[in-house]
Structure formats: C-alpha cells, structure tokens
Design brief:
OB fold (Dihydrolipoamide Acetyltransferase, E2P); 3 helices; 2 domains; five-stranded mixed barrel
Length: about 140
C-alpha cells in the first residue's frame, strides 16, 4: 500500500473517531442540579441543558391531550417547587409519589421546559432493614 493510501486511511479513522465522540457526548449531556440551586442561580443556568429531579405533586397535573401538553409541579427534599411543561405524551406511571427525572431548559419565567421525562417509583422498602423484611416474608 502506498504512503498516500496509508495517510488517507489513518485520517479517515481519526475523523470517524472524533465524530463518534462528538455524537455520543452532545445531545444527552446535561448538567445535573437541584431545584433549589437552579432557582437561586437561574441566570447561571440560562440557556443550558439541565437535568433535575423531584417528586411529583399529583394535584398539580394538567394534561391537554389536544395540544399534547403536560403541565405539572415537582418538589425537592427542601420543599422547593418548580413548574414543568412537557410537550410529549403523559407517561402511564405518572401518579402521586413518583420521582420525575427531567432534562431540558429553564425559561425566562422560571418554568422548566422538559424535553425528556423519566419516572421512577419510590421503593416501598426504602429505609427498611433487610433482615426485618426477610423475617416478615418468612411468616
């Protein structure tokens, strides 16, 4: 193989590697922060893609199926609340006590515009001793 072909092959491999790294890191890369920190430093996070999480306040949920718009409020462990707008279908697991993990941006009026929403249910065994759970199960 000639010298030109080797250089061309090496350059192609490097270019593909850089492209893969760029594509893997960009769209889902979000700075994680708390609701309290986000609201206290909103100018710092302006136009940044963020990840936040909080517990759903169930009576805050407003679903507009016609416009595919879900509005709701989440709350962190300190009791700080944040209004959310999500323009995709409402998840089936969207019930009281669910923890919402959101990716998106804070708008100028301190509403979080979510592009991605995941939910996780709180464990009913959270904080319990495993030995107590085994003993209860064996009864």
């Amino acid at each position: 193989m000639g010298k030109n072909k080797v250089v061309l092959l090496a350059g192609s491999i490097i270019a593909i590697g850089v492209l893969i790294i760029f594509l893997a890191a960009s769209p889902n890369a979000a700075d994680a922060t708390t609701i309290s920190n986000l609201l206290d430093n909103s100018e710092k996070y302006e136009e940044k893609y963020l990840q936040i999480e909080g517990k759903l306040i169930e009576d805050s949920v407003k679903w507009d199926a016609r416009n595919v718009e879900l509005q709701f409020t989440i709350q962190d462990d300190n009791g700080t609340e944040l209004d959310i707008v999500y323009n995709k279908p409402k998840p089936d697991s969207f019930t009281d006590g669910v923890v919402c993990i959101l990716k998106g941006q804070l708008t100028a009026d301190n509403v979080f515009q979510a592009e991605n929403l995941q939910t996780k249910c709180p464990s009913k065994y959270e904080g319990e001793d495993v030995a107590d759970h085994k003993a209860e199960k064996e009864k």
